[in-house]
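Case study 2.
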Amino acid sequence: MRTEVVKELGVSFLSFYILGVVVYYLAKSCKIKYNGFEFFNPKKSALYSLLSVILSSCMITGLMVLLNSQGTTGVGSNVQKFNLNSVINIVIIWLVMLSPILIMKKIRNESWRSTGISKHNLRQSILIGTILIIITLVSSILFSSKSLSGIGENFNLSVLWAIFYFIVIGFSEEFMFRGYLQIRLIEWLGKWKGLIFTSVFMALIHIPQRMAVIGLSPYEAISSAVLLIPVSLMMGYIMIKTENIVAPGMYHSFINWINIVIYN
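Prediction:
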């Protein structure tokens, strides 16, 4: 088991390192403008953001446990059936779960731009996100054990609704971790420390969810969470290179969605 985890972790790091190089040259060729972010008190902003994200994460875990105990799905990425109701439900759920962050943002009078939501580098961000999606789609098909016809058989109305479902989850998580938390941690700790801290924190915060909801053992939950670190670092790096949550939001949403299309 440990060997498999190490091997999968190594492959993930290699894959996202290659994509990181692609992002670097795409950002360079797109002539992205870097304005940076400024906070009056970076340390205080970072600590408040960390507190808000922890509270939101606790709410997420608690809600997932509640839904799981009632036999209701709608939060995790293992949902198999999607429809309009599931999309509406996930929107409501995430609005509630993001409330600590939104309230803290309002109290501290922080702009939407300070969370990566703005027109700044928007076109370039959309372009980079689209190219990453195409690269991942092609590689997923090429390295999938399923044939094209087998993948095509997975397409149905539920899968189409899943696109909207995972867009909600992808952009909500990117807003929480990359747009809100990472930007503030980078301003306090520096670019690379902020990136690593946010990425590791996002991955490890999934441990209690996997134990309480999926029923994994502590070791399995930790192993599963650790495997999220490479992709988390990738999302964070995209955010650094674009200063806009659109590209990481697009890519995050697509990764979640393609998993149910090809690997289920």
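The radius of gyration is 18 Å.
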